[in-house]
Amino acid sequence: MRIILDLVANFILVLGFGILLQAPKSSLISVGLTGTISWGGFLLAQNLTNSIVFSTFIAAMTVGVCGEIFARFNKLPATVFIVAGILPLVPGVPAYYMMYHMIKGEYLQGVENAINTLMIAGAISFGIAIVGGAAKYYSELKNGHLEEE
């Protein structure tokens, strides 16, 4: 029951970000689904691996895939779906704790949280970049624009 509540809350959260970011009204359900599916991927990977960084990477790749798929269906840029869908994965809590520990003078704990924050942010970037690059490569391959070396 907790997982279903998390997914519904995530749908509402991402839908709200889609409205805030002025996504077209016809795409709002797809925007919400992008965030919800990615959060489901995060929860599944978290249960299987117990690694926040790897789970974030899997969820970021899921956001990228959903963004590319929904972009084709809605005839919109993938960034409409990716920007709102990625927001629940942003490492706000580790960044907060990094600053908290640094201000308190607990530098070792602060640096640990900083490294964790950077690893999560890197996992998000890398996951989106891999899917975006693969989608572009596939599109060029499909359209016959890929030049042979």
UniProtKB/TrEMBL annotation:
One GO term of the biological process aspect: succinate transport
Database matches in Pfam families: ThrE_2 (PF12821)
Family the entry assigns: Belongs to the ThrE exporter (TC 2.A.79) family.
Organism listed in the record: Halanaerobacter jeridensis
Localization in the cell: Cell membrane
Domain Threonine/Serine exporter ThrE: 7-131
GO cellular component: plasma membrane
Keywords, ordered alphabetically: Cell inner membrane, Cell membrane, Membrane, Transmembrane, Transmembrane helix
Segments crossing the lipid bilayer: 7-23, 29-45, 52-70, 76-97, 118-138
InterPro entries, alphabetized: ThrE_2 (IPR024528), ThrE_Dicarb/AminoAcid_Exp (IPR050539)
UniProt membrane topology term: Multi-pass membrane protein
Record lineage: Bacteria, Bacillati, Bacillota, Clostridia, Halanaerobiales
Protein name: Uncharacterized membrane protein YjjB (DUF3815 family)
